[in-house]
């Protein structure tokens, strides 16, 4: 900040090792551009450990929940930025992966994912 008393930064912690980093960053950039273009008001800053909050929207708990959220109207900015073809492919591949991993033990799932690298 100009007065040197406040910190102005942000952290992106909404992806994990299974995310495609290029698509995750692209989606973040598109959402930011959408917000600037549409003069979207930012929410109030979070000054506490987010894990202690009970009255906020949480990230999806399952792959299917994440695909449904991406397909919802609430994520129009991301869908518009990535384009319908990418969104369709991303959700189709993600749903197929979720079906494959559904009954796997964690160790086997990790082995399969590492093998893909």
Q: Give the biggest sheet.
A: none
Instruction: Let me know the number of strands.
Output: 0
Rg calculated over all Cα atoms:
17 Å
Low-confidence stretches: none
- From the N-terminal CA to the C-terminal CA, the straight-line distance is 41 Å
Number of helices: 5
From the spread of the alpha carbons, the general shape counts as: globular
Average per-residue pLDDT, rounded, comes to 85
The helix content is 40-55%
The run of helices and strands is: HHHHH
Instruction: Classify the secondary structure makeup into a structural class.
Output: mainly alpha
The proportion of strand residues reads under 5%
Word description of this protein:
The protein has 117 residues and is an all-alpha fold. Helices cover 53% and strands 0% of the residues. It has five helices and no strands. The protein has helices at residues 21-37, 63-71, 76-82, 84-101, 106-116. It is globular and about 50 Å long. The protein starts with 20 loop residues before the first helix and ends with a helix.
């Amino acid at each position: 900040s100009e007065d040197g008393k406040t910190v102005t930064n942000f952290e992106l912690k909404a992806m994990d090792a299974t995310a495609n980093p290029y698509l995750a960053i692209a989606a973040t950039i598109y959402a930011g551009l959408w917000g600037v273009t549409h003069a979207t008001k930012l929410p109030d800053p979070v000054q506490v450990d987010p894990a202690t909050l009970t009255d906020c929207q949480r990230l999806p708990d399952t792959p299917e929940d994440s695909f449904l959220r991406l397909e919802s109207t609430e994520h129009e900015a991301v869908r518009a930025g990535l384009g319908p073809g990418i969104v369709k492919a991303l959700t189709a591949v993600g749903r197929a992966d979720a079906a494959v991993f559904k009954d796997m033990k964690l160790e086997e799932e990790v082995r399969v994912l590492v093998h893909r690298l």
